[in-house]
Predict the structure of Dihydrodipicolinate synthase family protein.
Amino acid sequence: MDRDDVDWQGYFPAFVTPFTESGDLDLDTLRALVDHYVSEGMHGIVVNGTCGEWFSQTAEERRAVAESAVGQAAGRLRVLVGCTAYTAKETAGFARHALAAGADGVLASPPPYAKLFPDEVIEFYRDLDAAVDGPIAVYNWPHGSGVDIGTELADRLADIDQVVAIKDSTPDADQFFETSRRVRDRVRVFGPYMSVRGVEVLRTEGGDGTVGGGSLHGRPDAGFWESYWRGDFDGPHAHAVAGDRLFPKLWLPGGWAGRYGAYQSQLKALMTMLGQPAGHVRRPRLPITDPASLRSMRAVLVEEGLLPEVDRP
């Protein structure tokens, strides 16, 4: 199995898991968010990843989220299900469930907290590969796993049978683009192509897609990739300029946290301002309630043309 066995490409929002204000899982809002992304033309979604707050869900809830997302998508967009856990056995259990539920593939980072050595990372994914029957995406998330999957390690992982993609969230842009060059002959690569530098890489070397935190721009995020597929680089360049301008106003370098709160907390607050289904965060995450912070976030959305000037809290 390799990159040609899947058709994953384009913009895949990293899907937030909606909770009620009291902390209950909110599957009605989850289904509404799936429909929202379908209406905005997204090419896929990634559920139960970092934005999905998998770490605060029970195993039963994680399975319910996967089933609900796949069922609501009903083949209208690709659904990848995050299965990160502390052991390959536990990860494989979530993966087998997701694939049986109809997911198009599964995604997992190296186990958090353990800070695996390179050979241990390889064996973790080999164990996962042996325990599931379906396409696997490697998730490089250094802030969560304590491991940054560099180019040499990614090259080795790309040779594992059912590894067909990598979602690379390294904060090191040079490393990302070197990894993309090295492994794209075998696996799909998702990462920061939607930057000015990334557009130039797409122009000269190609790329597969981006998994972004939600989709603040909406349809233009999907349109970026559709323009690229048509050979039009003017539209993607303009969108990249806007994205490069917006990102540092809202997010810390490396994209691991918001300037006004935790990543999930800030993303859900922004989505709510934009009228997108989002729900609430669940503890240990806390909502952003400071009025000055909320005003500042809204001002950024207005400044970037994502909200009208007259929109006031």
About this structure: The mean pLDDT is 97. The two ends are 51 Å apart (CA to CA). The longest strand covers residues 163-168.
